[in-house]
Amino acid sequence: MKFFSPPAWRLGIAISLVSTAAMAVSLADLSNQDASSGLKAALNKGADVAVAKLGVENGFLNNDKVKIGLPGMLEKARPLLKMTGKGQQLDDLVVSMNHAAESAVPLAKPLLLNAVKSMSITDAKNILSGGDTSVTDFFREKTATPLGAKFLPIVKKITDGNGVSSQYNATMGLVSKTGLVPGQAATVEGYVTQRTLDGLFYMIGEEEKAIRSDPVGAGSAIIGKVFGALKQ
User: Which one, out of 23, 36, 141, 221, has a CA that is 20 to 30 A from the CA of 58?
Assistant: First the structure.
């Protein structure tokens, strides 16, 4: 009796299928340590990408997804203010607000990475399986307040040079006492700080979605293993 060897291409496919099956792991198979390491790596990548895109000249201004426009009250008053000769100041304020945001963003990374230490390793799997931006949402909850505190003085220093900004703050200082204006909108610097945070976490969230969609494409073994497990 003669035995025939299978064609090389069939053998290659068989080996590939066996290797893939052996490497595939489910979320339940992951150790808590691996899950935690994967979260940390994903956050590190997300923070790197967000800061690289936003923390550069015109990083906010040229990105329609995160560009900071005038606070609502100023935007509504724009036609009247332009009639009184303040159109250029308004345009300059938009530019300075976005430059303030790009100047503040690089301060975020150390705080974001430090927040990993506050995460319980046993909670890692729950965070991972919470949704498309659950990792981002977790770290936003942990870091938004301290990040805002760091961003605010930088933003204020840049926006204070605009006359419209100081006039807005003076007016809103009176209006805010009525309780009709949200706290972060009571000053230009408060508004810009909040929008900076929104833009930062939006970009991190977009990177998390990309990682979840293509874990292997993230270029990290631990990210591929951990986020790949979510697809099993």
Answer: 141
